[in-house]
Amino acid sequence: MMKKIALLGYGTVGRSVYTLLKAMDDVEVTAILRSRAYDDTVDGKALFTTDFDAILNSDADIVVELTGDLNAGYRYMKASLERGKAVVTASKSVVSEHLYELKTLAEDQGVGFYYGASVCGAIPIIDNLILQKRMGPVRHLRGIMNGTSNYMLTAMTEGGDYQSALKDAQEQGYAEADPTADVEGLDILRKLTILTSLAIGAVMTNDATSYYGMSTVLPMDIAFGLERRMKLKLLARCDVDQDGVRTVVEPTFIGSDDVFYGVDGALNGVELDGAYCHHLTFLGEGAGGDATASAVVSDILHVLSGARQCYELADEAPTVLSPLPQTYYVRVSEEADLGLEGCEVHQKDGYKQYIVQNTDLKALLAACQGETTFIARLG
Ligand SMILES: NC(=O)c1ccc[n+]([C@@H]2O[C@H](COP(=O)([O-])OP(=O)(O)OC[C@H]3O[C@@H](n4cnc5c(N)ncnc54)[C@H](OP(=O)(O)O)[C@@H]3O)[C@@H](O)[C@H]2O)c1
Predict the structure, then answer these.
(1) Residue limits of the Aspartate/homoserine dehydrogenase NAD-binding domain (predicted)?
(2) Three-state SS for 209?
(3) Ligand 1 atom 46: residue of nearest CA
């Protein structure tokens, strides 16, 4: 039977989703919500509207939310589920904040709620994580989950500085005009929150994880790694044991034996350790209209197949522990006094580069308060 689909959003992802859906013969796009009124037609049809209530009151079976608006997106999805419509979204910000509520509402209403495109674009990490978790514990997740920051770090590894890498990323369409969420690690944090919630079967919150981005990185930091045959990557990490969960988002120097060493440019990669699958690694495009649309349409196909995505998600706060102590690189100006005793220190070009053993990101952020600094895990 033909299913009717309302698209909320007709931007980078929405347009690609529309093109893909047009080629399918068991779905029909009946309306497209936009933020402003447009007179144009799509394929000769007057699909554009700014009236969400009309969509809510229509006979659309599936609402596909692609607005990128945290508050409105949440409101649209909640209202659609309440009306018994299946919802598919690519919004990591809404899902990382409202997963439990929207999942529970969908279950109560007996409709699907899918968000596979919210983490790492085309990479099918959410479906696979849910499957592996049903078979046994998932103990570890780690990944490069943001194409913009990876593109910029790759450009700097090839000799550029931060500003030229950012400009290049913007020109290539990878970085937004305001790249804050990408370069400060917030975008990755939201994705890690979603994956961690699924891995532990309990609701993780964005504020439970320490995160640090790459907006203060200098060519000398990249060079520090290259002199030691290491590349700098912005990594998200989740480790689970019987005591609780440890999560962090932080720049990390990795060697050539690391599976992510060759994951350059705008590519994303995620690794997962499950009880039965053991070690799995996924590589692919983490963003872009077509790549993200492929994940959105995969979820629409889930809805069409009638299969339910089954997983447990307890409404209780998990035990969140500090990451285990590691060795870190900290670069500050020559004048700064971090009070770090007994560390290896290098002086270079007006800066001090510390190698600090047995510590973690949170402790270093506290020690570096008020200083312009760059922090990265070493290995
Ligand atoms: N772009 C990517 O590579 C990528 C990758 C993964 C996930 N995502 C996620 O996919 C979603 C869409 O991203 P995008 O890049 O396609 O966004 P975009 O290009 O900015 O397009 C947003 C669309 O939503 C409409 N819109 C915005 N706010 C609205 C509101 N309050 N009510 C109604 N319509 C509204 C806009 O209307 P107008 O047409 O009138 O401007 C536009 O059509 C976001 O959640 C994003 O995080 C994107």
Answers:
(1) 9-115
(2) coil
(3) 68
The number of folded domains in the chain is 3
What pLDDT sits at residue 379? 73
Atom number in ligand 1 closest to CA 94: 45
Q: Is 191 a catalytic residue?
A: yes
Do 152 and 279 share a domain, yes or no?
yes
Ligand 1 centroid to 13 CA: how many Å? Answer: 7
Token pair in block for residue 22 = 């047009």
Kindly name the residue from 85, 103, 133, 191 that is annotated as catalytic.
191
Residue nearest to atom 29 of ligand 1 (CA): 35
CA 110 vs CA 86, 126, 308: distances in Å: 9, 20, 9
| pLDDT, block means (10 residues), the chain with 379 residues | 96 97 97 97 97 98 97 98 98 97 97 97 97 96 97 97 96 89 98 98 97 98 98 98 97 98 97 96 95 97 91 93 96 90 90 96 93 92
How many angstroms separate the CA atoms of 372 and 331, rounded?
Answer: 9
Q: Give, using CA atoms, the residue closest to atom 21 of ligand 1.
A: 11
Within 6 A (CB) of ligand 1 lie 9-14, 33-36, 66-69, 72, 90-92, 117, 121, 287-288, 292
Residue 119 counted as domain residue: no
pLDDT value at residue 91: 97
| Cα 285 to ligand 1 centroid, rounded to whole Å | 18
8 alpha carbon to ligand 1 midpoint, in Å? 8
Query: What CATH number corresponds to the domain at position 39?
Result: 3.40.50.720
Distance in angstroms (rounded) separating the CA atoms of residues 352 and 333? 6
Please state, as a whole number, how many other Cβ atoms lie within 10 Å of the Cβ of residue 180. Answer: 11
Among candidate residues 60, 81, 114, the one where a domain is terminated: 114
What one-character DSSP code corresponds to residue 334?
A: T
Residues 6+ apart with CB under 8 A from 185: 146, 149, 211, 212, 213, 214, 234, 249, 250
- Atom number, ligand 1, closest to the C-alpha of residue 71: 31
**Could you tell me which residues come within 8 angstroms of residue 34 by beta carbon, excluding any fewer than 6 positions away?**
9, 10, 48, 49, 50
Q: Which domain holds residue 360?
A: 326-378
Q: Whose CA is nearest to atom 44 of ligand 1?
A: 68
- Per DSSP bridges, beta strands 326-333 and 373-378 are antiparallel
- Per-residue tokens: 268: 């994303």
